[in-house]
Structure formats: C-alpha cells, structure tokens
Design a protein that fits this description.
By secondary structure, the chain is mainly alpha-helical. It is built from 17 helices and no strands. α7 runs antiparallel to α8.
Length: 394
C-alpha cells in the first residue's frame, strides 16, 4: 500500500510539472512577448495577440483527434511529442520575421499543448486516484498558476536583460529539460490502458451514452464558466483605467493568481467529499463577490486586490470544475465527452476576452463587462443546479 501511494504521488508530481509547462508557460507566459514581438516586427500588439486565439483554437479542435490517437499510441509518447512540438514552435518563434510565421507557431503550440495539458493529465489522475481524484486534479491544475506566477517575472527579466529571442529559446530548453522527462515517464495504472476505449472491437462501456439534454446543459454550464475567466487578460488594464501605475496594476493580476492557486486546491479537496455542483455554485458566488468588489471599490488599492483574489475562484470553475462535472455526468465516457466540450469552452473563452476588450473600447469603462460577468455567473448557477437535477433523474 505504501509503495502504491509513493507511485501515485510520483505520478501526481509529474502531472503537476506537465500542467505547469502547458498551461502555466505555453499559455500564461505568452503575453509577455506581445510588446517585444510587436516592436521587432513593426505591427500592432493586437495583431500579435491573435497568437493566443490560435493557440486556444488549435487546442480545442485537436482534442477529439488526441482521444482517437490515444487509442492507438501510448499516452506518454503523445505527451512527449506535444512537448517537443511546443519546443520547436518556440525556437521557430525566436527566428520569426513575419506575423504569418508567428501564427503558424501559435497553431503548433496549441496542438502541442493539447497533448500534455488538462485532458491527458486528468485522464491519468482519474485512472490512478479513482472516483476521489478531485484533490489530485486540483493540485495539478493549480500548478498553472504557480508556474505563471514564477516564470513570468523570470522570463520578463531575461527579455529586458538579453532579448526576447533568448527568452523564447530558454523556455523551449526548460520544457525539454524539466517537463519532457516527466511526460515520458507517465503511464496509466493498468499497463497504459485507459478506461475509455470506445472504438475497440467488442468493447462495451460500463456507462451508457449520455442523453443529449444533459450534454447540452453540461456544455452550457462549462461555456459560462470559461467566459467568466475572460476578464483575467484585462485585470491589469482594469487597474490602469482607474489610475494605478503599471507596477501596481501588475499586483492586481498577482492577487488573482493567488486566488487561482488557493481555490483550485480547495475545490479539489471539497469535490472529493461533496457534490461538485454544490462546490461550483459556492465558488460562483465567491467569484461574483470578487467581481462586485472590483466594480464598486476599484479606487481602493486593498479592496480591488481582495476582489481579485476572490475573482480567482472562477479559475477553478474553468479547469477543475470542468473535469469534475464531466466525470459526474459521463463516467466511463470521460475522454469522449471532455474532448468535445473543449471545442466549445475554448471558443467561449477566446470570444469573451475579445468581448470584454471591445466593450471597454466602445464604452470607455470595464464596468459593463464586470456587470455582464455577474449576469453570466447567475446563469451558470441556474444551469449547474439544472444539471444536478437532470443527472439525479437520469
């Protein structure tokens, strides 16, 4: 038993590294390169920022393909290949002399990230930890915030002291040295076989196909959760719009990252003990309270940061809650349902980021966007409770 626990802990730590490398670096650190790339190529930051959208779209549409490939190729090989693809994309990006080349790198990064991010990691942790995998999933996904908080200032300093090209190459090197070995040594508990092999001859899943009405409510709930996180990209700009300096505005984002880490850890722990829908509803209320604080008390340095910490609860909803709710509904069809859901949630997140930005450009304030977030939160609560009721009846 003790040896098995040690092996599970080792699996969890390697999963943490993969999430940190995928969501913490490939996704969360991309923003620091916008300004230097914009200056180097002589184009606007807006055109450069499209890279993030392309990463998100590539990740979304490759997820169902990943599930099909996982039925034929060992999971650790796929994860390792994804990391290598991200490394190649960052090296190519450091040599890019055109926006088109950057966009291609963004697509490669999105496909690569899909191979070692939330989908494969939650599949592995679900296999090793069984039904009570919430704490493990929460701990692993919290590393996206840990890596983002640690690596952003380090890479920014390298950009300032050396160049953005050097920073990109060092990021690729770090992925190869620290994250790649972790991915290659991961495995499923039962000799690399996952529970979801729906296309194998003679295979009959334990759980029946999920009814369409439940799928619609599940996906709608998860889409709302991802839209709630779109303001994350605007938190620094929100603070600046209220007169804070760039340095002070950065601490607002740091406060949100603290909430991100804490609420993910607590969500995972709580969802192992009570219905994840109830945890999600509670976290929705906490996130809404933080949003209202940033809306009403934006001129108070302490309160806007406190609001940002509470806003960090939304990050749990767009990551840990997605996994827990899909597990609750889909059971043995987890990979199938989750991979299809990613298409909708990734699009929702990408569109929400643009929506909140356009709202500010047109109206000159982030207040309408914050009010909209509170409204989406209320809708998500109704949808989550409806999902719980439909699932209980099914």
């Amino acid at each position: 038993m003790e040896e098995n626990n040690k092996e599970r802990t080792g699996i969890l730590l390697r999963c943490c590294m993969c999430i940190g490398g995928a969501m913490g670096m490939v996704s969360n650190c991309m923003g620091i390169y916008f300004s230097p790339l914009s200056k180097a190529l002589g184009v606007g930051v807006g055109r450069i920022s499209i890279i993030v959208t392309l990463v998100s779209l590539a990740n979304a549409f490759f997820a169902p393909v990943f599930v099909k490939l996982e039925e034929k190729v060992k999971l650790n090989y796929l994860m390792g290949s994804g990391i290598v693809l991200c490394m190649i994309s960052y090296v190519l990006m450091s040599f890019a002399s055109s926006v088109g080349m950057l966009y291609l790198c963004g697509l490669l990064s999105g496909v690569g990230m899909c191979c070692f991010a939330a989908l494969p990691v939650t599949m592995i942790l679900r296999d090793w930890y069984g039904d009570r995998n919430g704490s493990a999933v929460g701990a692993a996904l919290a590393f996206s915030g840990v890596f983002g908080a640690v690596m952003n200032p380090i890479l920014s300093r390298i950009i300032s002291g050396m160049s953005y090209q050097t920073s990109l190459r060092l990021m690729a090197l770090f992925l190869g040295v620290a994250v790649l070995p972790c991915a290659l040594t991961l495995r499923m508990k039962n000799d690399g076989k996952t529970e979801v092999k729906t296309n194998l001859p003679g295979y009959e899943p334990v759980s029946p196909k999920v009814p369409l009405p439940i799928i619609v409510v599940l996906y709608s709930t998860c889409v709302c959760y991802c839209m709630l996180c779109g303001m994350n990209q605007h938190l620094s700009a929100l603070a600046v719009s209220h007169g804070y300096s760039l340095e002070a505005s950065a601490t607002v984002l740091t406060a949100a990252m603290i909430g991100n880490i804490v609420f993910k850890l607590v969500y995972g722990f709580a969802s192992d003990r009570i219905n994840p829908v109830y945890v999600s509803v509670a976290w929705s209320i906490i996130g809404a309270a933080g949003t209202v604080m940033m809306l009403v008390f934006a001129t108070s340095g302490i309160l806007i940061r406190a609001g940002a910490v509470l806003y960090g609860a939304y990050f749990s909803l767009s990551t840990v809650a997605l996994s827990m709710l899909v597990q609750m509904v889909a059971k043995d069809r987890y990979a199938e349902v989750y991979s299809r859901m990613v298409i909708f949630t990734s699009l929702a997140y990408a569109l929400s980021v643009s929506l909140y930005g356009m709202s500010y450009d047109i109206l000159g304030s982030y207040a309408p966007a914050l009010v909209l977030i509170v409204g989406i939160t209320a809708l998500s609560v109704v949808l989550a409770l409806t999902l719980n009721r439909k699932t209980a009846r099914n």
